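REQUEST FORM: STRUCTURE PREDICTION
Request ID: SP-0412
Submitted by: Lab K.M.
Chain count: 1
Length (residues): 115
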Amino acid sequence: QVRVVESGGGLMQPGGSLRLSCAGSGINLSFIDVGWYRQAPGNEREWVASINSGTSTTYANSVKGRFTIARDFAKNTVYLQMNSLLPEDTAIYYCRAQVGPRDYWGQGTRVTVSS
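STATUS: Completed
RESULT:
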């Protein structure tokens, strides 16, 4: 069974940092496109960052310079390092793994940025 599982969310003060993890089970995340998305209350899900099957990364303008997406090949995990968090980063964060025409989504991990 193919699964991706997010973890690492929580409550953080503005200016703080969190690292989210997307772990693959039954799927090798090392050589496929993986993206992070988020959905804030009342909003549509939006794309945050992606890493392609190589090492190329792209970011939404709203997080560029603050967030970093990276792989750990040994752990079959894709991370989203989030620094300088803002209240508007509050959302449920989802991982998406693309294998050909198929998408695999996790259940999400909640991030709340508040003082």
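NOTES: The two ends are 40 Å apart (CA to CA).
Reviewed by: T.R.
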